[in-house]
Amino acid sequence: MSTSGGAETRGASGPGTGRIVLGVVGALLALIGLALLAGGGTLVWADGSQRDREGFFVSEPSAFASTGFAVTSERLHLGNGLPGQLSSPGDVATFKAEGRTGTGKPLFVGIGPAVAVTAYLAGVAHDEVVDVHMTGWKGPLSKDYQRNPGGAPDGPPGAQSFWAAQTTGTTVSLTWPARQGTWSIVVMNADGSRRVAAGLALGIKVNFLGWVAVGLLTAGGVLLLLGGVMMLFAFRSSGSAPVRAAGPRDQLVLETSDEAAYPVVVEGELDHGLSRWLWLVKWLLAIPHYIVLAFLWLAVVLLTIVAFFAILVTGRYPRGIFDFNVGVLRWSWRVGFYSCAVFGTDRYPPFTLADVDYPARLDVPYPEQLSRGLVLVKSWLLAIPHYLVLAVLIGNWGWGSEGHWPAWSLDGILVLIAVVILLFRGQYPREIFGIVLGINRWALRVAAYVLLMRDEYPPFRLDR
Q1: Are 175 and 283 within one domain?
Q2: Are residues 294 and 400 in the same domain?
């Protein structure tokens, strides 16, 4: 590994700030679009295959029981804030309850205004269903009861005039076109006697579900298309451009005579005269970088998926995406070198994807051709041995947006020892720096491999 200098060179400086912002916004729009498409597709699947013959989504039968005189639901607040044209019965949804008694007595199931139900059951021993959860896709319901002590009701439930919908029998089936208001569902014995038991399946039919699915699919498709176009313009290759005559640290190149060199260049130069105290606040000073890198790494994930399919079809990594991903790795390495991964410099890292004059440098040569077969197994299978080693070296694999490892990793422990020595002696131990640099070099080589940027398998070593 060496640095080059003297002659005019050609190289891409990477996307500018405007293109970075355009690409990140495009990636976010594409991600939202994919989520909307997934939601719309789920609704289409559910609407077509999960409804009964009457169009209801129905849960599995659930047991409802009380040693008192009634079982009631929590108050149901429906349609508050809906426009007037949606306030008539059945405009939005229809509710259904069906099942059978568990005691042999005729069962009563009714839906009424919550105020009227509360007045009817005031002072009556009954159980209110609370904390209801669906177990699985269709139930049955998992629930708790809140017990209310008291005596018997003043007359059987069927004699009351406030019910919006009601049914009676040993086998019951009730449908109710939902409307605005606050409601309660009540299950009792038809004669108003003590000890209620019933097995009921609850269902709902949403009248506008098809239109909601169409809306989600349309909006998702538009956002995905818009995000894809934005990313295309942001990350398309702009070609190479001449740059100024290079100084000794202006560009990293691979030693062609070094057969063992791996084609991911990761270098770091330890600053002389590091501040004894600045490392205590570098993690705070680097927060603006962490925020930007969080969005950039989101874009990297999305773009790597695009690159996966491009490699699978063409055997080539789209150059614009490749340059962007290299830039994000480069940016992450600079921030990690400055902050918690190394603390190797006091120079604040620049906000750029380009290769600039900075103590931490990274470059990955562009591969003209990649294996279509390897792209299928690199990240999840072939990299497993490296994941196991890096789990020891850095605690959790992945050169993330913040560019640092947990304190309990080997890298974190070594860095902590180094900065404590720096605090008391004013000098960062070079022996520790060499090991820490090697650990980060290893992790970044594996990151480039997992991001599908090279076919060469990363070496198990800390040096170049």
Answers
A1: no
A2: yes
Residues 51-64 have pLDDT tens digits of 888 888 888 898 99
And the tokens for 107?
């069962």
Domain membership flag for residue 137: yes
Show which of 208, 243, 276 is a domain's final residue: 208
Residue 218 lies in a domain: no
Full residue range of the structural domain in which residue 357 is found: 254-450
- Tell me the per-residue pLDDT of 227-252, one tens digit each, with 9 for 90 and over: 878 867 766 654 444 333 334 444 45
The one-letter code for the residue type at 247 is: G
Other beta carbons within 10 Å of 351: 14
How far is it, in rounded angstroms, from Cα 433 to Cα 346? Answer: 15
One DSSP character per residue, 302-354 reads HHHHHHHHHHHHHS---HHHHHHHHHHHHHHHHHHHHTTTT----SPPPS-SS
pLDDT band for position 11 (50/70/90)? very low
**Which token pair is 77?**
């607040």
CB 78 within 8 A of CB 124: no
Residue 251 makes CB contacts below 8 A (sequence gap 6+) with 3, 4, 9, 11, 355, 363
Give per-residue burial for 309-334: e unless 16+ CB within 10 Å, then b. ebbeeeeebbebbbbbbbbbbbbbbb
381: DSSP letter: I
298 touches 28 (CB < 8 A): yes
Cα separation, 7 vs 253, in Å, equals 13
Domain count for the chain: 2
Q: What angle separates helix 384-394 from helix 430-450, to the nearest 10 degrees?
A: 150
- Among the candidates 208, 223, 239, a domain finishes at 208
Q: Which two tokens stand for residue 258?
A: 């070094």
Residue 258: inside a domain: yes
Whether 261 and 377 share a structural domain: yes
